[in-house]
Amino acid sequence: MNKDRASIARIGSIFGVIGNAILAVMKLLTGFLTGSVAILADGMDSSTDILTSLITLVSTSVSNKPPDAQHPYGHERADAVASKIVSMVIFFAGAQLAMSSIEKLFSGSSSVENLPLVVTVALISAIGKYALYRYKLAIARKIDSSVFMADALNMRSDITISLSVLLGSILVSFTDFQIIDTLVGLVVSAMVIKTAVGIFWETNFELMDGLKPGDDIYNIIFEAVSRVPGVQNPHKVRVRKMGYKYLVDLDIEVDPLLTVRKAHALAKNVEKAIIEGNESVYDVHVHVEPAGNVENENFGIDS
């Protein structure tokens, strides 16, 4: 699984670098040649996307390393850390774009030449970004990677950005209001910043040992335990997510007259049932209690 995951991630990151590099060069050259702030801003955004794709390449290589003495739980959270870095890179790019657009807005130096070229490049960019978005999203879902999902969401935002540039350029060509191009550049920067904040917030779940809304892992765990004969009252269940892996802790109750060996065997059966119920479950720790045991336990999820 790890080798396949690493291979898929590596190929996806390389395609991301190549695709974004082509689009970035096209848009930056167009921006410099035509004076369009909007397409130049879009090109600068695509330039940061090259960096984010390189970050995903490095992070997935790290996250697929096996556990070691310094990282006994593994390296999977490299994905979440990389997502934070990606969000900061995107935010910085958006802030720079905003400052450039505001400066040009107040200087009144907006003048766009060769609008058909800007429209054509913006359309090509929107199509290219859509292809990259679908590709990155498919990889994110296939290998359950938060950093690829962050990159996919960034690509989705870029589609809107390129379409905004396209619409703005068309409006400029019909109205000859050159300021529209600068205003679109400002809107583009706001979209970039919004995407960065969204990615930054999304990764908090994993880094704070939380689960995203809609994750049904707890239901899967309770269903798996219910199929194990001799086990009662699964409770104080806690799940942590590290990359695509789940780490599970839970308490169960068994007949208090069982020997330690038999109680241990039931605990192993519970571990097996949970792991078989979801291939992403990496480790299960089961604490055994005598049936009817009453303790004040204020954390964890009960059935």
Write a concise keyword list for the protein shown above:
single chain, 303 residues, mainly alpha, Alpha-lytic protease prodomain-like, Alpha-Beta Plaits, 2 domains, three-stranded mixed β-sheet, elongated
Overview of this structure, please?
The longest helix is centred in the N-terminal third of the chain and has 33 residues, at 2-34. It is built from 9 helices and 3 strands. The protein is elongated. Strand 1 and strand 2 (245-254) form a beta hairpin. The chain starts with a helix and ends in a 13-residue tail after the last strand. It has a 3-stranded mixed β-sheet, covered by helices on one side. The model has no long low-confidence stretch (mean pLDDT 86). The chain is mainly alpha-helical and 303 residues long. It has 2 domains: 2-207, Up-down Bundle (Alpha-lytic protease prodomain-like); 217-290, Alpha-Beta Plaits.
